[in-house]
């Protein structure tokens, strides 16, 4: 048994003897050099204490590192004067404010629900609490596929029993909703102290609405916006909201289509997707979905356009939101990370913010292992965690309001997925051993989701680094007045830093090699 694992077991025994309730350390499992996960099962899982800020004049640091730290908490003192340490200097300025933060989360796909439910009840509870409770990373956003996605066990819609059912008489939720995902959602809500905001997205429509006459595969809707096919599709989406409201479930937002453009270039034959051009989506909003949503009991549900890669910006937004008639129905833009390296954030995200400052931008899907040549599940891969945090930092610094991961939990192959489009996930379930593995991606996400709650505001963080900084950074002011700074170090050396907050003084610290750190402090009692 390795040293850290032995310590974790000893900690559990001592806790049981004393009845103490405190954070529990990671029990590590290695899948190669530096490839480490934290193992959870029915009897044990690493946890965090609820965030409790020290007195004014002190700060908290949470550290996750390649060396093995996982959201480890420490405290330090803020000095009224700068010390002798040299290095990167930051100035935290809460008077300069940018976008408001909506939050962070993942997707409750059919695959995620199936994997969670394959665990024992006790192990399930540990997994749910890891994501949603104060002893976990406190997700507040949850993406929700409307009927099947590729991460389902089968292709289906909510109206497959009848043909040409324009009155939607045969519409009904699937067993995947009523027996899996909805019961799990109630448990997510019970575990969370924060309100959960749900974002719904459809992949495909009933086959009889599509040119292909099949649910599976890539196709167009029949007809054109304003006719009975597009009108029925709009009413189908409203009906979905109606049916969920019968379970006392309301949605914060809905997009009209997951990836309306990108799947046309994917080699996966049966990948379920309705194709939309930006012009078709614009006209669908104007003639069908916008008026239907406004006339329904769900008129306060935000409508999201795009829900696809940012390479399509700003063209897509200019076609849809640049049209006054469509813009009055649209609240936000959904973005996926998959080809972010192709275009920089300036000409896309920055440009959109300048053009449409009142429209929020939200990353609605991201995952590792999606390229055909990738290892699908790469247990313990540190670089995949870094890819998450670097992407989040970059996008938050370019006016994005939140970031949603893809599947909450996948199996050891990266599925199930009925079109074999396997990928990685922050939590991997090994149901044969009744255990699950929390990967570096999980902890990198936690550096944002746990400490930057909804309603926080990104604020200015200037530094003495003007060309190529060793660290990536972002700063926030929480609704409770707490200051937050996230620093990511992907160098092989520790980096000495200072953070000046003119209200309280200097934080002086070292950011370890290959680590991510979140700093928190308050400036009033």
From TrEMBL:
SUPFAM superfamilies: (Trans)glycosidases, Glycosyl hydrolase domain
EC code: 3.2.1.45
GO CC terms, sorted: lysosomal membrane
InterPro entries xref list: GH, GH30_C, Glyco_hydro_30, Glyco_hydro_30_TIM-barrel
All copies of domain Glycosyl hydrolase family 30 TIM-barrel, residue ranges: 101-452
Organism: Python bivittatus (Burmese python)
Family label: Belongs to the glycosyl hydrolase 30 family.
Catalytic EC class: hydrolase
The protein, known as: Glucosylceramidase
UniProt pathway: Steroid metabolism; cholesterol metabolism; Sphingolipid metabolism; Lipid metabolism
